[in-house]
Specification:
alpha+beta, Phosphorylase Kinase, domain 1, Transferase(Phosphotransferase), domain 1, 2 domains, three-stranded antiparallel sheet, 32% helix, EC 2.7.11.17, nucleotide-binding, Protein kinase domain protein
């Protein structure tokens, strides 16, 4: 096992026929079914991921089902979370930054062309493919993703406090439903964070951060932003426009001069190590100090409910998997009728210990 958290476990496995390593994410069906729309959410995630084909989006290769669990076979990403890498290095230069942001926008553009919005773009969901690249990112966690052209959208208001577009927080049933522009705003918050080392929406707890996020008052007149080119700041402002119709689309972002990677970079380095450390200690601690009072979802959790947290919404990072025993995989394996065709059935088999040519490994990724 290489990771666990509140509702699934992740294992590393090797496909014997090709000697290729993958990650196996195991979800406990009883636990998922007990969560608010947990079963529907997992089925929706599978459906969304099957439609994706981009180097900058995590790939779902297979889905297997047992009487107890659902297993996702996905990319094994050994580079870790983006922010962890930046804290380790302590600097990021503008040339690397523009490649990184371009890769993020390319991922969103692929989604948006398919009428899919991710709705939970945040630092924890940006993973690096390897230990040797600081820019080759992959967007993970499609637990809140949805098609824009369907009637029954699972969660109307969702995301993670501090990264949610204002139109998502302001949405009411009588309103026209928001669109893919919400992802651009969230990407803009990440851009702001990488430029400054600061989260634009500050607060001592979940509710304060949420109020600041809803008010959407962002300061661009701070010393940290003066270190970067006017082109970078111009794109940042266009991504963070609080009015969705005036906000840049992913296609417009890709045409912006800042994301022209052939352009000479100023090579300015911003020392983000201390600031990003503060982001992790202060912001993440504050957002976890939360109280809820409704059934909407933020970060795969209720936005304002008094109930318990259903899920943490972060299924692709090391600290976010639990509640599915690997022994279940060994005892009862049923390969679905086609790749990824999970049915949440109650069938099982006692005579198979290897899943689709995969063998279990207990070697932890360092």
């Amino acid at each position: 096992m290489i990771g666990k958290g509140s509702f699934a476990k992740v294992y590393m496995a090797t496909k014997k026929s090709q000697n290729i390593q993958y990650a196996i994410k195991a979800f406990n069906k009883v636990f998922m079914a007990s969560q608010h729309k947990g079963k529907q959410s997992l089925i929706n995630e599978i459906s969304i991921m099957r439609q994706l084909d981009s180097d900058h989006l995590i790939r779902l290769y297979e889905v297997y089902e047992t009487s107890n669990s659902i297993y996702f076979v996905v990319d094994l990403l050994q580079g870790g979370e983006l922010l962890h890498r930046i804290r380790e290095k302590g600097t990021i230069n503008e040339k690397d930054l523009k490649v990184l942001i371009r890769n993020l926008i390319l991922a969103l553009n692929h989604l948006h062309q398919k009428n899919i919005m991710h709705r939970d773009i945040k630092p924890e969901n940006l993973l690096l493919k390897s230990k040797y690249s600081d820019c080759d990112i992959v967007v993970a966690d499609f637990g809140l993703a949805t098609k824009t052209d369907i009637q029954n959208i699972l969660f109307k208001r969702c995301g993670t406090p501090g990264f949610v577009a204002p139109e998502v927080l302001e949405y009411k049933e009588i309103d026209k439903f928001y669109g893919v522009q919400c992802d651009i705003f969230s990407a803009g918050i990440i851009f702001y964070l990488l430029l400054t080392g600061k989260q634009p929406f500050q607060g001592k707890d979940y509710k304060q951060i949420l109020r600041q996020n809803k008010a959407c008052e962002i300061s661009f007149n701070i010393p940290e932003l003066n270190k970067f080119s006017p082109s970078a700041i111009d794109l940042l402002k266009k991504m963070l426009n609080p009015i969705p119709d005036k906000r840049f689309t992913s296609a417009q972002c890709l045409k912006h001069p800042f994301l022209d990677i052939e352009e000479d970079s100023l090579g300015i380095e911003a020392n983000l190590c201390g600031n990003l450390g503060s982001y992790e200690v202060e912001y993440l601690a504050n957002v976890r100090n939360k109280q809820f009072d409704s059934q909407d979802m933020v970060g795969s959790m209720p936005l304002f409910s008094t109930g318990k947290l259903p899920m943490n919404g972060n299924i692709n990072t090391v600290g976010s998997f639990s509640n599915a025993s690997f022994s279940n995989m060994e005892r009862k394996i049923i390969i679905s009728t086609g790749p990824g065709q999970s049915r949440f059935s109650n069938q099982g088999s006692n005579d198979c210990q290897i899943i689709g040519g995969f063998e279990k490994q207990y070697v932890q990724i360092k």
